[in-house]
From TrEMBL:
It comes from Paenibacillus amylolyticus. It comes from the Bacteria. Residues 479-620 form the AAA+ ATPase domain. PANTHER family: HTH-TYPE TRANSCRIPTIONAL REGULATOR RV0890C-RELATED (PTHR47691:SF3), REGULATOR-RELATED (PTHR47691). This is AAA+ ATPase domain-containing protein. InterPro entries: AAA+_ATPase (IPR003593), NB-ARC (IPR002182), P-loop_NTPase (IPR027417). SMART domains: AAA. Signal peptide: none annotated. One of its GO terms (molecular function) is ADP binding.
């Protein structure tokens, strides 16, 4: 039994926190089960809710995210909640619920049901009952229903907004924080593997974080670990729960008998407060943590002592710049060290320097300052005559005692280890008890730190003081130059630059962000440009440099290019260097590389080798056993120095793979024996690429990885080697969801938390924001081990990787259908994985149809984020491996589509005409899925320039494609039929089409358009954003700056941008140039080519310019021939000099082109 739990029971300090799992055995639904019931109910009205249910079941949306999608259906949600939770309790076995009431008289639950109050008869208090919340401490017992009660379902905490409001603002939370400050919490019925429970605990963690007590949860999962500051208590299975509770009851009863007390709780008496209490004060907390000192910042260790006071604490690093910026604070606290009667402070390069108390005063704005308190490590001598501010200096370690005396007793005397200057100037008011609010500089800014830089992975960083100092100084001072950090593999380049990045970030440097690009898997210029463009927010522009210059984009940011040496040996290195040169004028660039980049403006820093002491210190961070003096000598000289070459990565991997109390003499022997055999493992073959000329050639790094690898279990090796097929890494949740499928539940090669945790503990993987990745050199080793496997084993790996990617693509498509922007964002996070999958998809021959479905789905996603150029070459390589009928034609149409959408209109159009002329489309059977995909791909091109032929084909072949039908009806101005179709089918209209239609009918509200532009698209859907913004330009609601910020991805978007600029241009000559450029670029997109001619013709007419008749005749003929009825109407109005509303009944198409039969198909 856990001793802290025992002590908490004896002291009446155990708080039970009961979750949904406690009610499930009594046939109450799980949380996800409840949401599924809601979605099934809603699906009776609309099929789209079935897709949300599928997304929920796969885990790609959390339950809170799903609820957020249906918050407009709150009434139905509450009805299902009431029906499922408000059940009769008659006949239910409430033994377990009664037992928890015998253990503690203080129970909190997030459950809505009435089981606990029925079983215990405790006083029920709901979170919104402010009177009873305020008096919880006076109650003999209580059951706090933190998320509400089923008696009032509409007040239950269900939706994301509910949670945000409850855990930020309510009296329940403030009181709860006071209540549990010195309590131990035991969570029962919370499954830490449940995403919803983890989200709940994130919120609940805001209550207890900062308090010193440890908290616990019951679990039957053997691999369970600490989560949100809560530690596991393991049960063999849930049958042990009842005996476990019995043991707690026995401890409680023995304690009550021994103390002579009844089981009744002692009532806390609230002291009478002084009328001079100050409700809230503002404190600036400054800590000295220069990068050349060993001290780590420990804001939380200070703020926890103020957690019970109603104060706002703003946290800063102690520097002159910060001192000068402090204004409006009641008190300033400084924590530092003393050297020769001076205090340590940071200089402009984050290094330590010394400052006197007098200099502190000189750099402070002292208006309204009630007191400044300096905490240091030893006595400091200060001349009182030189200080004119209320200053107290303590060399006292008991911060809790100091704060009590200052803010409760209002006393400045009785400090044995303190010096008080100008005591009469201090203004100490008793501070009201409450909840402190802690704010860091980053909380107040929109700073952004790359997700590839995870602070928790730097906790054990040691040494490298001179490297940190030099790199930091050079980054801060670098002006339009690139800083290259050079060093051998595994020496710590990446870790060191990430450490510097975090230090700068936490001090508020580089407000536009710190970006991180891993160049390891970049193989061409386009991929590199795409990664760089992401940092500027313009990933797919035709001309990145032109766009940046045109919009005067300069970022106060850092872009870190990691493993840059891999780019030095690709054919397009000159283009890459040219882009790096250009970038330096717009942003700070830092490169890590195994060799110099050889740029004229290259600032350099070469990483030095670890010293013996640094190596020993790093080893001690990961290996905690006590060593004898003779073992330390062997470790330092023979193991770390000679065998591991003081290589940080080798040391880290070796140390984290040692069992407790490993004898260092035996370790030395093990490593020496392994070193003798490593040539048999093909060590030299791992590093034989051009990029490896400058890699560290000692066998230490390879050996440390091999030493760890050999000790892996079968499934740990599977995950380790499988990761080399995933350049973006794999998100932990996706692995779990994949292997939780029925097909894999009994799979002997199933990957679980156990394998993930084991590899992380052995330092073989890195986990950044949930993504599991291999460090660069470890990835090379994993790939080498993988390639050594038999062909059969490799095929099995490829199949497993493809099955995972296929699973992910299907789930992403479902998300895309339900929530377009989120689906594309997740796809974009995994884009390199999808690209990589095209290189092994032909390694095995099974199920070609399944592979083709995968390719068509992922091709759509690549197309939507303008990345088909990344896969066009791969498609051409793999198409020969498919021998299904018409499979080659499918690839040809996709490749033509890729060329067209990339802006190579003529090449794409010529390719589709050669591969599949319109006449040949009639020979295909669109009831066959593969042939239907071919037709869809071809029609996407033909509709732009051959709309009449497409319309004829669709009608004659009864080709039912909803979006194609909507597009055809729009081009012919049949808006009424679109509304009829969408009403009967229950499907929506694409946002741009809807905005255009409403604008043409004079029914579009500007606010509606703004909402569509801001919320309907993923940020990389540049074509969609350009199109909808074009509607805004036609409304006259746009300026040049907004237009210029739009990203041009091909000739079509270039044409729309030129047309928008023409519409707002006041200079006649410039307008003509813009119009004619727009007309030229839009020619392949026939509808908007015709619309551009209309706008140009109108401009010529209004300005009485030549060529009006020529352009009018051309536009009028195009509109009429292509049956663009709305544009036909606009030209008619122009000719008559009238502005008449559009009446589609005046432009009825001939029967041969009517699509009523297709509309009927869509209705059904």
């Amino acid at each position: 039994m856990n001793q802290q739990i025992i002590e908490a029971i004896k002291e009446n300090k155990l708080l039970l926190f009961i979750g949904a799992g406690f009610s499930q055995p009594l046939d109450f639904p799980s949380w996800n089960g409840l949401i599924s019931l809601v979605l099934n109910e809603l699906a009776l009205e609309d099929d789209k809710y079935k897709r949300l249910e599928e997304v929920l079941s796969t885990g790609l949306f959390t339950s809170l995210e799903v609820l957020d999608k249906i918050k407009d259906k709150k009434k139905q949600v509450y009805e299902v909640l009431y029906h499922e939770i408000d059940k009769s309790l008659e006949g239910l076995n409430l033994d377990l619920h009664q037992k928890v009431g015998k253990i503690s008289a203080k129970i909190i639950t997030t459950n809505y049901d009435r089981l606990l109050e029925t079983a215990t008869n405790f006083r029920k208090v709901v979170f919104d009952n402010t009177f009873h919340i305020a008096n919880l401490h006076e109650k003999d017992n209580f059951l706090l229903k933190l998320h509400g009660c089923i008696e009032n379902p509409e007040k239950c905490i269900l939706f994301q907004d509910d949670y945000d409001q409850l855990y930020k603002e309510t009296a329940a939370i403030e009181k709860l924080k006071n209540l549990i400050a010195d309590h131990t919490i035991l969570f029962i019925g919370f499954s830490m593997s449940d995403d919803y429970v983890n989200k709940q605990l994130e919120y609940i963690h805001t209550i207890y974080k900062g308090f010193s007590k440890q908290h616990y949860y019951l679990t039957v999962e053997s691999s369970a670990s600490e989560q949100h500051g809560v530690y596991p208590i393991h049960l063999k299975d849930w049958n042990e729960l009842s005996p476990f509770l019995d043991s707690l009851i026995e401890i409680k009863e023995d304690s009550d008998q021994n103390s002579g007390k009844a089981s009744k709780n002692i009532v806390n008496v609230t002291p009478v407060r002084s009328p001079s209490i100050v409700k809230e004060v503002s404190i600036a907390l400054l800590i000295a943590a220069p990068i050349d000192q060993e001290n780590n910042p420990y804001f939380d260790k200070v703020t926890k002592h103020l957690a019970k006071f109603k104060v706002t604490i703003k946290c800063f690093y102690f520097s002159t710049e910060v001192l000068r910026s402090l204004e409006g604070f009641n008190y300033i606290f400084i924590l530092t060290h003393t050297v020769k009667d001076k205090l340590i402070i940071e200089d402009q390069y984050l290094k330590s320097k010394l400052i006197t108390p007098q200099e502190i005063e000189e750099n402070l704005i002292t208006d309204n300052l009630n007191g400044i308190f300096i905490f240091t490590d030893k006595l400091i001598r200060i001349s009182s005559s030189s200080i004119s501010i209320p200053l107290a200096v303590f060399w006292e370690k008991d911060l809790n005692g100091v704060f009590f005396k200052l803010f409760q007793k209002k006393a400045l005397d009785n400090f044995e280890n303190g010096l008080i200057l100008n005591q009469e100037m201090f203004d100490l008011n008793q501070v009201e008890k409450g909840i402190s609010k802690n704010v860091t500089r980053n909380d107040d800014s929109k700073q952004w730190l790359s997700e590839s830089i995870d602070v928790k992975n730097l906790v054990n960083f040691v040494g490298r003081k001179t490297d940190l100092e030099d790199i930091t100084r050079k980054i801060i001072d670098t002006n339009k130059r690139v800083l290259t950090i050079k060093g051998s593999g595994g020496i710590g380049k990446t870790t060191t630059v990430k450490k510097v990045a975090v230090e700068l970030f936490e001090r508020g440097y580089y407000i536009d962000g710190i970006y991180f690009i891993d160049c390891e898997f970049i193989t061409n210029y386009k991929s590199f440009e795409y990664k760089v463009a992401q940092c500027f927010g313009v990933e797919s522009t035709i001309n990145l440099k032109e766009h940046i210059l045109q919009n005067n984009i300069e970022l106060n940011a850092i872009i870190i290019l990691d493993n840059f040496e891999t780019l030095l040996y690709i054919d397009e290195i000159d283009e890459i260097k040219s882009l790096v040169t250009f970038m330096c004028d717009q942003v700070n660039v830092v490169i890590t590389s195994r060799e110099w980049v050889q740029l004229e403006f290259e600032e350099r820093h070469e990483m030095r080798a670890f010293t013996n002491e640094e190596a020993f210190q790093l080893f001690g961070k990961y290996y905690k056993s006590v060593l004898k003096s003779e073992e330390i000598k062997i470790l330092k000289e023979d193991i770390l120095g000679n065998l591991l070459n003081n290589n940080p990565l080798a040391i880290k991997i070796t140390a984290r793979n040692l069992p407790k109390s490993k004898n260092m003499f035996i370790l030395k022997t093990d490593l020496e024996e392994d070193f003798f055999n490593i040539t048999k493992d093909g060590y030299e073959d791992i590093f034989d690429d051009e990029t490896d000329v400058n890699i560290e050639r000692s066998k230490s790094l390879y050996q440390s990885i091999a030493y760890s690898y050999k000790r892996l279990k079968v499934n740990e090796k599977l995950l380790f080697e499988l990761l080399c097929l995933f350049p973006d890494g794999i998100h932990m949740n996706n692995i779990k969801k994949f292997f939780s499928q029925t097909y894999y539940k009994l799979d002997s090669k199933k990957i679980t938390d156990r394998e993930i945790n084991s590899l992380e503990n052995k330092s073989l993987i890195e986990i950044n924001k949930g993504f599991i990745k291999l460090q660069s050199i470890i990835g090379r080793f994993a790939e080498h081990q993988f390639l050594k496997r038999s062909e059969g084993e490799k095929i099995d790996f490829y199949k497993r990787a493809f099955e995972f990617m296929n699973f992910q693509s299907k789930m992403l498509y479902k998300i895309y259908e339900a929530e377009r922007a989120i689906g594309l964002e997740i796809f974009d996070q995994n884009v390199e994985n999808f690209i990589k999958s095209y290189s092994y998809i032909t390694a095995f021959n099974e199920d070609q149809q399944n592979k083709l479905e995968y390719i068509t789905t992922t091709f759509l996603m690549f197309d939507l984020i303008h990345q088909t150029q990344q896969i066009s070459g791969k498609l051409e390589k793999i198409q020969q491996h498919f021998d299904l009928p018409k499979s080659n034609l499918l690839f040809e149409t996709m490749l033509a589509n890729a060329k067209y959408n990339e802006g190579n209109f003529e090449e794409g159009y010529d390719r589709i005409k050669k591969s599949l002329p319109i006449a040949d489309m009639y020979k295909l059977d669109h009831s066959v899925e593969l042939e239907r995909d071919i037709l869809n791909s071809a029609l996407e091109i033909y509709i732009y320039s051959n709309v009449i032929e497409v319309r004829k084909f669709v009608k004659e072949r009864d080709f039912d494609n909803y979006l194609l039908t909507v597009s055809l009806l729009f081009s012919s101005g049949e808006y009424g039929k679109i509304e009829e179709l969408t009403t009967s089918s229950g499907k929506g209209i694409p946002p741009f089409t809807l905005m255009e239609m409403k604008y043409n009918l004079d029914k579009l509200e500007y606010n509606e358009l703004e909402i569509v532009i801001s919320s309907s698209f993923y940020r990389k859907e540049y074509t969609q954003l350009m199109q909808t913004t074009y509607v805004k330009a036609k409304m006259g609601k746009i300026d040049k700056k907004t237009i210029n910020r739009l990203v041009v991805t091909n000739r079509y978007t270039s044409g729309l941008k030129s047309l928008m600029l023409a519409l707002i241009e006041t200079d006649r000559k410039k307008s003509i140039n813009f119009y004619e450029k727009a007309i030229h670029d839009l020619q392949p997109i026939r509808y908007y080519y015709t619309e551009a001619i209309y706008h140009y013709t109108k401009f010529l007419l209004n300005n009485s310019l030549d060529n009006y008749s020529l352009w009018f005749d051309k536009g009028f003929l195009l509109a009429k021939e292509n049956q663009y009825s709305f544009l036909h109407h606009k030209f008619n109005c122009m000719r008559r000099g009238l502005e008449l509303p559009y009446d589609e009944s005046q432009y009825i198409l001939s029967g041969v082109y009517q699509l009523d039969s297709i509309i009927d198909l869509d209705k059904n």
